[in-house]
Structures are given as C-alpha cells and as structure tokens.
Write a structure and sequence with these properties.
Shape: rod-shaped
Number of helices: 12
Strand content: under 5%
Number of domains: 2
Protein name: MerR family transcriptional regulator
Radius of gyration: 29 Å
Keywords: Coiled coil, DNA-binding
InterPro entries: DNA-bd_dom_put_sf, MerR-type_HTH_dom, MerR_fam
Largest sheet: none
Distance between the termini: 72 Å
Order of helices and strands: HHHHHHHHHHHH
C-alpha cells in the first residue's frame, strides 16, 4: 500500500503518518524502485493502534511505550486484540445510543442524562404535569447518581410507576400545597401512598440511618407544611417496615 491508501484505510492523514515517521513512532517502510513507500498489513495494524491510543488521550511518548509491549507478537494475535477492541467500542456505542433514545423519549422537564435503568423506569411513568411527580423525578435522578443500590430499587418501582392511579396520588399531594400541617387529608393520603409501595421494595431500604435522616431533612424542606407531613409520615413508616 502507498501512504495515501494506508491513510484512508486507518483513518489518518498522510501528514500524521509522516509525523509518526519523523518522531520515530512508526519505522520507515521499504521503498519501491519508483521511490514510493510500501506499507504492509502490519503497518496498518500499528497505525490503527496508534490512532486509537491517541484518541484515548495518550501522548505520543505514552503511545510509544504501549507499542513496545506489542513487539515480537504474532500478527494474528494483534489482529485478534484489535478486533476485540472494536467489539467493545461497538457495544459502547450501542449502549450510548440506547441511553440517547431513552433521553429523547423523556417528558418535558426531565432532569438530563441518567442510567439505562432509570431511563427505562421513567419511560413507564404516565405523562403528567404534577409538580410532585417532577420532584420525584429529581429525587430518582439524585439516587441514580449517588446510590450503588439504585438499579435494584428502580426495577422494583416499575410496577408502581406504570400504574395510572399513581397520578391521582401525585395530584392529591399537589392539592395540599396551601393546606396547614393538620389538614385532615394528610393521614389518608399517607396511608394510600404507603399501600401503593411494592412489598419487595422494603428489603431494599438502606440500613444507614444517618444518611437516610440527612436526606429526609433535605427532602422535606422542599415541600410545603402539609405536603412535608405526608412525605415525612411515609418515610417514617417506610423505614419502620423496612427494618421489620
């Protein structure tokens, strides 16, 4: 192969290849009688590896060290490694596209990039403009970013969020926005919310009470007095049943 051909094959410019020759990263190939460089398959493999390593942010000195580890290896072995590397890149691209697809399907006001598990959960939720539902999405996003056990919880919440009746519960909570902390609707709503929680979810409650307490205080501060009373009762009952 000539320099233009190998450059097109591996996705580099001829200028970059000449620079790699200049700095000693790529040995100069033999020249044909007409003076053109004659590149081999191994040269193409080497250049492809250089490109991938530089795309990962390695300096040319770091690339040189990495390539030194490949010295003396059989071509087939290097090709197999590169093929495995491409397979990993393909899998990563598929996962990123799945996450992008889930994000595009999110309702207006969604909180941004989330894990595939949370994206799948949010996709099941009925569409609603409820402010309380929007708060829940924010808390789930926070859990997604900070809790290692969130994936299990999201899976268990699937049945709950997919139930259209959950919208009514959010709307009842919204209706307490201007109510006092002793409103008679508080107790029935807290009980109905508790009854809607899947039994399997209680086993997934974290045991670190200090962390949960701190989160509870921050969460309740986001609600009006009557709403905070409902959410506080729910969290207390939730923790008590989880410990049982």
């Amino acid at each position: 192969m000539r320099i233009g051909e190998i450059a097109a094959l591996v996705g580099l410019t001829t200028r970059a290849i000449r620079h790699y020759h200049h700095v000693g990263l790529l040995p100069e190939p033999e020249r044909r009688p007409n003076g053109y460089r004659a590149y081999s398959v191994r040269d193409a493999v080497l250049l492809a590896r250089v490109r991938r390593l530089t795309e990962l942010g390695l300096s040319l000195d770091e690339v040189r060290d990495a390539l030194a580890d490949d010295a003396g290896r059989e071509l087939a072995e290097v090709l197999e490694e590169l093929d495995a590397d491409l397979a990993r890149q393909e899998a990563d691209i598929r996962e990123r596209r799945c996450r992008l697809s889930a994000l595009l399907a999110e309702p207006p006001g969604a909180t941004g990039p989330v894990s595939p598990a949370l994206a799948a959960l949010l996709a099941q939720a009925p569409r609603t403009d409820s402010p309380s539902a929007a708060k829940d999405r924010e808390y789930l996003t926070l859990m997604d970013a900070t809790s290692s056990g969130s994936q299990e919880i999201f899976a268990l919440l699937g049945t709950l969020v997919a139930d259209p009746a959950v919208v009514e519960l959010y709307e009842r909570l919204d209706a307490l926005a201007e109510a006092p902390a002793d409103d008679p609707r508080i107790a029935p709503l807290a009980a109905d919310l508790m009854a809607a929680v899947p039994e399997e979810l209680f086993a997934a409650i974290p045991e670190d009470g200090a962390v949960v307490t701190g989160f509870k205080e921050a969460l309740l501060a986001e609600y009006t007095p009557a709403q905070a009373e409902v959410v506080g009762r729910l969290m207390d009952a939730f923790m008590e049943r989880g410990r049982g």
